[in-house]
Amino acid sequence: MKTLVLFITLSFCLTPFSARYTMAWGSEPTGVPSKQVTAHPHEGLAQAVALFNGENLAGWHIDVPKMDADASIESPFIIRNGMLICRASPRGHIITDKAYQDYRLQVEYRFPSTPGNSGVLVHASKLRAYNKMFPQSMEVQLWHGQAGDFYCIYENLTIPDMEARRGPKENWGISENKDRRLQKLKDAEKPAGEWNTMIIECLGQEIKVWLNDELVNYGYDCTAVKGQIALQAEGAEIEFRKVTLAPIAKLTKTSQGLFHDDFKHRLADGWSWLREDQQAWRVMERGLEVRVQPGNMWGKANDARNVLVRPLPKASAAPLEISVVFSNAPTARWEQADLVWFYDKGNMIKLGQELVADRLTVVMGREENDRPRTIAIVPLDDYTVALRLQVVSNLVRGQFRTRYWPQWRDVGECDLPVKGLPQETEPKASLQFYNGPTNAEHWIKANDFAVRSLPAAADWPRAKIEEQTFQPGVGALSRRETRIALAQGFTLVSGADGEQPPGPVPQFDQTIHRHTDGSCGWTWNRSNPASKTVTMQGIEFCPLEFPLFTADLKDFKAELDIVSRLDIDRGDHTAAMGIRLASSPEPKAPSRQEILIWFDWYGKDWSAFAFSDGQRDYAFDAGASSDGRIVYRLQGLRGAPPKVNIKTLIDNALKRANLNPHATWVSSVWIGNQVWNVSQGSALANTVDFVVNGKRHSGLPRKQ
Fold first, then answer.
1. Which of 13, 91, 144, 606 stands 20 to 30 A from 573 (CA)?
2. Would the pLDDT of 498 be above 60?
3. Which residue has the higher pLDDT, 52 or 45?
């Protein structure tokens, strides 16, 4: 049965949202930067600023000594594919025009081929102070093998265990021929070709450095507290895809590692097996490998083989986190690899990679007294996934990340299944592998298992500061919606399309809401299976520039972090983006064409002739398209991607519909979920940015 799917986009743009927020915490290097941070309406939040815009070197200048005498020498600093490239030579620095203090700097970098030397310089001031090349500063090293070290360049810093990590005191110094290196606490660098995330916090005289979520260095009593920021070209090509800065008023507290096992060649002491099959597990150089076999741990079956467990400290003693990385390409229904907070066979919280309804997903579930309940089903865009469960008091949160998402993303939250358990029952960590195929061998890889104590109480579930509910009645539902204003040009929308015939009122129960941390979300409950009316929720984008002449459209991109979460393994939904094209620039001009891009849907992967937007492949869906509407589906693994080149999709649709770009306007864009039948779920939006002809529009404030 083919269901007609529509979505709401308004035929007018929003009036400007009155609240405009500015920040003044960077200063010109010649002046003294004042610590001004305009308060954000969401408590405890500060806007992160992209120092590198992905388009050009605005806000930066270069200092390359060799270019002084020879104007023909090309700069080592270029833009390529939206990244800042620091080539191997000539050597020099690219430096921010402004000076900063009291901030969190985040850089994502990699050595694309042979790894070598580079660095991030903070508190930079006098140019060419060291060896007629390096500015006076504190360097945070990116040099392969030393990433996270401090190097003193005519500034100084104190670290714990100073002599052990700096060498004999008589050799210390900040100038030429002195021991300027302050060694890192640990090695957390990824191999060449993989992306690293470094976070540097500078507050007063303190500097704290994380690499790939590991605290790698900390120093205090720094001789500088402000300055410019510089990146190096120093003998090896390095790529930067993200450089952001946010003001801070305090340093981030650090979790404490309690246990780590990379599973290389052996299992660490403390592990034990339930229903061990010695022929179906092995430890290799690359980690633990377990053959996933038929069997189950969900509900009353409890017959899965090779269930791996180890004791944990009681969660009441301190907030705890367990994490692991799994790699698998499942083919059997419900085939899965799970990280589990485990009490016994009938009481547990699981978070795992699982094949659900032919979709690769992350599933969080809760089982109490053999009664299982799904917390959330989230589309997954990679066969390798890092998972973590965080437990604070009686609450547990599940999160995941992949190579496309360096930041942890929420799956769900719930309470621990401890009712009825003896008070002395202690939790365990467990790795579980089951529902494997009967006709094939699948070996799941597991590595990087860790247990950490968390530094503070839970900051979740997210607190709501505004919520609206949409409950339609009988009759015409078209263009009825509930709205919440976000940033200028952005609106959170919930509504329905179609006509509901007389009879029982469908149970839609749709809500939209904003959170205190700046994120927003929406929920739906389509528990009445008889209703075929399509409902939608999401964020509409309609800035002052709209309607926008398509012939003048030079670039149009979206940067997103939106997670769709199904509550049940059934029902129909899509995660989608809609683009409305009009036939005139008038605000109420009739729709000429609607472009619909499906990022996620219930059912099998879509396979058809595809084209690329430079990030992912998309295919035209002739069956779902009709006059006035063109539908595309994301190819391969699903979920709203981090980047979408909207202009490529518009160009393809204009050709397919034989529309003249000189007679067509973009009037609005919508991104969210369409739901019908018995679907139940929610979505969480952390980032919704659109870049239109070089101008960035942010719908949600960035978290620190």
1. 13
2. no
3. 52
